[in-house]
Amino acid sequence: GFSWKLNDHPKLPKGKVIAMVVLDGWGEANPNQYNCIHVAETPVMDSLKNGAPEKWRLVKAHGKAVGLPTDDDMGNSEVGHNALGAGRIYAQGAKLVDLALESGKIYDDEGFKYIKESFETGTLHLIGLLSDGGVHSRLDQLQLLLKGASERGAKRIRVHALTDGRDVLDGTSVGFMETLENDLAKLREKGIDAQIASGGGRMYVTMDRYENDWDVVKRGWDAQVLGEAPHKFTNAVEAVKKLREEPKANDQYLPPFVIVDENGKSVGPILDGDAVVTFNFRADRMVMLAKALEYEDFDKFDRVRFPKIRYAGMLQYDGELKLPSHYLVSPPEIERTSGEYLVHNGVSTFACSETVKFGHVTFFWNGNRSGYFDPSKEEYVEIPSDSGITFNVKPKMKALEIAEKARDAILSGKFHQVRVNLPNSDMVGHTGDIEATVVACKAADDAVKMILDAIEQVGGIYVVTADHGNAEDMVKRNKKGEPLLDKNGNVQILTSHTLEPVPIAIGGPGLAPGVKFRQGLPGAGLANVAATVMNLHGYEAPSDYEPTLIEVVDN
Ligand code: 3PG
Ligand code: CO
Fold first, then answer.
1. Which residue, of 170, 254, 370, 484, has the fewest CB within 10 Å?
2. Inside any domain, residue 136
């Protein structure tokens, strides 16, 4: 039968302290002025890259290598950390929703049948990110769902659209709104009462994560459920255009607005008897709203009104909490992660990041599962993030504090694995502020130094890698790789992730002398890291894991 027991690695010892460092949004790209990692002073990461060639390599972090539908899909933290922790490639949410829509299975399953019960007398509300970024949601999936639901009896539909500018270029929200508006107009021609009801920028309205700032979710609640917002418009395209005119306005941070009728009444509050679907497939930024929509007992903000609705997520967002209890598509069944194996084999783990990335090294790492496998062998520490700011204002973020915690955990002698996520290059990269991103990259490099110094002190091993690219290319490029200009002749700043590979480096005094990266794995990706780390802990990986990146040569 099945056993959690891992085989001993034939050559590598147990008991070494391993620092597992994930630099968020740190890819490898051509050195130029838009490569903030290149521009920044990063002596530690440079020395890893320029050190022994058999201890540094690149791995794939985008597309099919991490379970995304195509190789045109950039990497992201969810699929990146899933792959790092699980050691296998799972068809991810984006792909699973595509398949369910394509086959029509989505309409036969429990979740859709459940919300359908409201179609006769209630309104169907669709809440989510309006984007073709493919990180949290996709516009074409929303379009298919609108079509499918209306063909199956939805008579009154309201869309609550969150604008992106983070996984796609800033300013693209206008075009997405127009597309949606067109689709809804076509539905109206068919006699379906379909409208956009509310909106707002994803970073200011609704899509907070890991409970960093509940005000964000409250602003969304007020607009979506209560039909109240500081800005009222009769047309969503106009709303976005107008709100973008404010100085410093951008898609990510647009204030909340509601659409009102000619009497000034909001067209789509969520009422008793309605159905609600949150159409993002990615979990982290939907969990908080899902709790507000689903939990009878809830004290994070005053909901004022808690409508009796039929609610389904596009996916189930948290398998441990079973949240939400109804969903349209089953999430990837990520099981037997490396963390769970290691705990069963006596490996003790410390994991840490600041709030905005805390769930990445815990929840995502453990296969979208919250909580501990075995609290006696694990300690997860969250450093509170600054909230209510854009991180270009404080590009160093909590990198130093994370590194100090990691250092202390390494020196404590209590842990075999000390795992961190350093958020700077990603979170500041997403702001599109190049100067600040350069500062961010240096801060991450400083943090790596502190962790590597501690590893040196205890005779441990380090594994330094990243989850996807971001800061290494801050400009939108044409097919030839040249920066694209906007109509004013300025380069188009890329706030999103990239398709670039990421580095992985191994080393430290505890690394056995003959350990090096194998030849012959040119297509290796993030999913190959788990087996590698298991080896370094002294174990062989389960046979269905993606192959290890290392070999041990006898000298
Ligand atoms: C976000 O949610 O901030 C971005 O859409 C993706 O960033 P992440 O995958 O690095 O978290
Ligand atoms: Co990111």
1. 484
2. yes
Q: For residues 461 and 537, what is the distance between their CA atoms, to the nearest angstrom?
A: 9
Structure confidence by residue, pLDDT tens digits, 70-85: 999 999 999 999 999 9
Same domain, 75 and 98: no
Tell me the CA–centroid distance for residue 53 and ligand 1, in Å. Answer: 31
Domain count across the chain: 2
Active site residue 425: no
**Cis, peptide link before residue 547, omega less than 30° from 0:** no
Q: How far is CA 24 from CA 76, 91, 423, 442, in A?
A: 9, 22, 5, 13
pLDDT at 21 (0 to 100)? 99
Per-residue pLDDT reduced to its tens digit, 296-306: 999 999 999 99
ipTM over 0.95: yes
Answer yes or no: do 122 and 245 share one domain. Answer: yes
Domain identity same for 178 and 268: yes
For 441, the domain range is 19-91+334-414+423-552
Which entry of 77, 137, 198, 338 is annotated as an active-site residue?
77
| pTM greater than the 0.95 cutoff | yes
User: Distance (Å, rounded) from C-alpha 326 to C-alpha 304?
Assistant: 24
User: Do 267 and 386 belong to one domain?
Assistant: no
Q: For residue 209, give the ligand nearest its CA.
A: 1
CA of 480 to the centre of ligand 1 (A): 27
Q: Within this chain, do residues 109 and 154 fall inside the same structural domain, yes or no?
A: yes
- Of 287, 364, 391, 430, the residue with max ligand 1 atoms within 8 A of its CB, to mutate for a pocket test, comes to 430
Looking at the CA of residue 75, tell me the nearest atom of ligand 1. 9
The dihedrals phi and psi of 290, each to the nearest 5 degrees, come to: -60, -40
